[in-house]
Amino acid sequence: MTFRTATLPSQVHFWDTWHLHRGATGEDPLHRELRQRFLDLMPAGERVNVADLGCGQGHDAMAFAAAGLTVTAIDFSPVSVRQVRHLAGQAHRSVAAVCHNLAEPLPLSADSMHGVYAHLSLHYFDDATTRSLFAEIRRVLVAGGVLVFSVKSTDDPYFGTGDEVGPNMYCRNGHLRHFFGSEYLESLLVEWKQEDVRPCAGRYASQEPSAFFHVVARKPE
Ligand SMILES: C[S@@+](CC[C@H](N)C(=O)[O-])C[C@H]1O[C@@H](n2cnc3c(N)ncnc32)[C@H](O)[C@@H]1O
């Protein structure tokens, strides 16, 4: 990843601290809604493989496992991966929790996932890395497989605040974000079958308002 400043704070450290001392509830209405949309789109079947990218504390991964899906939950924060493993153990759910940086190729086989879900975890990378990540998601999905994700949009109140470190990328209080505009999002999805691209406003793990895109797309058959 290349950024304009060489001195970005460690994002693993930022997220480890966030997961230890703050975290999300998984209960914000928009978050619940996106999780349910993903579940509703999953095929019936004996073994339905899904990946939760940037899984955080595992609220979504646990819900997917409870619904009978075979879940691989990926995050680069060792703290969050431990939390997911703990939660899964307590609930007697089988979730493969993997510590991995999404800037690197996904540790998943080609054409192996029926669904990929990424709630607020694809908006941390520069353009080249973002495009590689979307290509990786396409690689691991089966034909017709579903990608459901949310990202911060350029309508977000934090857009333009903090240190600018790249096009539409800002680091605010140690937290790096890439805000997506609709044209940018469109450019990432040209090789996908877009089913729904929806701007929305709400809250995530905070009382502060945020602006997002919620997206449902499919790898073409
Ligand atoms: C806003 S949180 C969302 C967590 C979870 N998906 C949720 O909705 O509750 C962003 C998550 O992405 C993870 N993350 C950020 N950058 C990452 C990267 N380069 N590789 C893997 N995970 C990353 C963070 O550790 C964090 O868990």
Topology:
Elements: H1 11-21, H2 29-41, E1 49-53, H3 59-66, E2 70-75, H4 78-91, E3 95-99, E4 113-119, H5 127-140, E5 141-152, E6 163-166, E7 169-172, E8 175-178, H6 182-188, E9 193-202, E10 210-218
Parallel strand pairs: 1-2, 1-4, 2-3, 4-5
Antiparallel strand pairs: 5-10, 6-7, 7-8, 9-10
Bound molecules: S-adenosylmethionine.
Task: Tell me what you see in this structure.
The chain has 221 residues and is an alpha/beta fold. It has one domain (11-19, 27-34, 47-218): 3-Layer(aba) Sandwich (Rossmann fold), CATH 3.40.50. It has 6 helices and 10 strands, in the order ααβαβαββαββββαββ. It has helices at residues 11-21, 29-41, 59-66, 78-91, 127-140, 182-188; strands at 49-53, 70-75, 95-99, 113-119, 141-152, 163-166, 169-172, 175-178, 193-202, 210-218. The strands form 2 sheets. Strands 3-2-1-4-5-10-9 form a 7-stranded mixed beta sheet. A hairpin with a 2-residue loop joins strand 7 (169-172) and strand 8. Residues 11, 15, 24, 26, 31, 54-56, 59, 75-77, 80, 101-103, 119-121, 124 line the site of S-adenosylmethionine (SAM).
Summary?
The protein has 221 residues and is of the alpha/beta class.
Radius of gyration: 16 Å
Helix content: 25-40%
The general outline is globular
- CATH class division: Alpha Beta
Largest sheet: 7 strands, mixed
- Looking at CATH, the homologous superfamily is Vaccinia Virus protein VP39
CATH topology: Rossmann fold
Beginning-to-end CA distance, first to last residue: 31 Å
Q: Give the ordered list of helices and strands.
A: HHEHEHEEHEEEEHEE
Give me the secondary-structure category: alpha/beta
Number of strands: 10
| Continuous helix count | 6
The molecules bound to the chains, other than polymers, are:
S-adenosylmethionine
Strand content: 25-35%
User: Under the CATH scheme, which architecture would be assigned?
Assistant: 3-Layer(aba) Sandwich
Q: Determine the mean pLDDT.
A: 94
Poorly predicted spans? none
